[in-house]
Write a structure and sequence with these properties.
- The protein is α+β, with helices and mostly antiparallel strands.
- The protein is about 45% helix and about 10% strand.
- The protein has 3 domains: about 160 residues, no CATH class; about 160 residues, Orthogonal Bundle (hpI Integrase, Chain A), CATH 1.10.443; about 100 residues, no CATH class.
Length: about 450
């Protein structure tokens, strides 16, 4: 059992409690903030601060800030518990070691955004502890003069850029965990078995399969998935330019192992997407008369207008209706069957990641915090690792009839071509991560055959 756990506060069912206890419960307000326990005992300092954060945030239920900070503080508290000390007993040496663990060490390093959250939680906790209990913090607080005024800043771990968030690829096992978490638990963290779990798992799996940005994933149609019957572990997929950053169509190899989740979700015969379809219809629909053909990657509407997928805007895509009169967008809302809103889609990966993190903490293990862009980074890293390990990148062969094996730099450049990673700093980051991942995982791991 993990030593450090996060217990979720919130309302309770009085009838259930009365049934269990045999008497009515006392009329006491529920705890509306996360509670951190160590070895089954409430950590009063951590929980007291989270109560303060929740009260400061306001609003009904458990504020998102308190939940996020609880995850950060629980990770730090678990680190200290392994060293037989407490939050009050932490020294600057502990802080320096923890910074290294979260920002440098290859096996436990997190994204720049996640570390920024962790650092903010640690700083604010120790500032609160100093103000409420007159305890000097084990961190160095500097006063910085900025355009927004004078701000307090924790010196330790300050130079980790948020842009390094793109540097958090999941390994094959973590990718499976994230998809499974979305499928089984959804954003709430409780096993729900709802249709949104299948949809969210398909969204994450598609990001892992092709590395598309969140905006592109959200606005893909059912017609743009690769042919299910196409052979091979890597199948060609075309990503439209109109919903991407570069405004150009990209053709790239997609991982069949991840596409399998998407096919299961999208199949009209028993897939959960079909169960999400309701009576929703757009105000100004575009009726599809002719789906894509072998010679035209797009649709022809009922007015005879040809609309290539590559140039079709997000708004036009949301208005598409299939010949059966149903939305043509791949991902739909569980509430009314409308195409999923981009703002909602952006939260899917982060919400599932938080649940995976919480489960990891409760097991005494580690899971990095990731967003949809990290799925893109995972895709490129896994693809480059495959090229480096000798998976054919094309039809050519060497003089012995074997696939050409490329060095790690060329493998990274080949994998990143479709994604637009051309900066030397980004390429160097990939080289390091692909090298580490190739040491610990095989071709079969990346292709889902283990």
């Amino acid at each position: 059992m993990a030593r450090v756990r996060i217990e979720r506060g919130g309302a309770w069912d009085r009838a259930v409690i009365e049934n269990e206890l045999g008497s009515p419960p006392l009329d006491i307000l529920p705890v509306c903030w996360p509670v951190i326990t160590v070895d089954g005992q409430v950590d009063s300092d951590a929980t007291g601060w989270l109560a303060y954060v929740a009260a400061r945030s306001g609003g009904p239920g458990i504020p998102k800030t308190a939940t996020s900070y609880a995850e950060s503080l629980a990770q730090f508290r678990a680190f200290l518990a392994d060293r037989n000390t407490s939050l009050r007993g932490a020294t600057r040496a502990h802080i320096v070691e923890y910074v290294r663990k979260r920002t440098v060490d290859d096996t436990t390093r997190v994204s720049g955004n996640t570390w920024a959250r962790d650092r903010s939680a640690i700083k604010q906790f120790y500032e609160w502890l100093r103000e409420t209990h007159c305890i000097e913090p084990p961190i160095t607080i500097d006063r910085l003069h900025t355009s927004r005024g004078t701000l307090s800043s924790m010196r330790e771990g300050r130079n980790v850029p948020k842009s390094s968030a793109a540097g958090t690829p999941l390994d094959p096992r973590q990718a499976r965990i994230l998809v499974s978490t979305a499928w089984e638990h959804g954003a709430s963290g409780a096993a729900n078995g709802t249709l949104t779990g299948s949809r969210d798992a398909a969204f994450i799996a598609l990001g892992l399969a092709c590395g598309a940005r969140a905006n592109t994933l959200t606005h893909l149609t059912i017609y743009e998935l690769p042919d299910k019957g196409e052979p091979g572990d890597l199948v060609e997929m075309r990503l439209p330019g109109s919903t991407g950053k570069t405004q150009r169509e990209v053709r790239l190899p997609a991982f069949r192992r991840h596409l399998a989740h998407v096919y299961n979700y999208a199949t009209p015969d028993g897939g959960s997407r079909q169960m999400l379809i309701k009576d929703w219809r757009p105000d100004d629909p575009i009726h599809i008369a002719q789906p894509p053909t072998r010679n035209f990657h797009g649709i022809t509407d009922s007015n005879g207008v040809k609309r290539p997928f590559n140039t079709m805007t997000a708004d036009e895509r949301r208005r598409l209706l299939t010949p059966e009169g149903q939305p043509a967008m791949l991902f739909l809302s569980a509430r009314d069957g409308a195409p999923l809103r981009y703002a909602t889609a952006k939260e899917i990966t982060g919400d599932s990641s938080r649940v995976s993190e919480m489960h990891a903490i409760n097991r005494g293990s580690f899971f990095p915090h990731v967003h949809t862009h990290d799925l893109r980074h995972t895709y490129a890293t896994h693809l480059a690792a495959l090229f480096f390990l000798g998976v054919p990148a094309g039809p050519g062969a060497d003089m012995h009839g074997r696939p050409h094996r490329v060095d790690i730099r060329n493998a990274v450049l080949m994998a990143s071509t479709g994604l637009g990673h051309v900066g030397p700093d980004t390429t160097a980051l990939y080289i390091q991560q692909v090298g580490m991942m190739s040491l610990h995982h095989t071709v079969d791991d990346f292709l889902g055959k283990t």
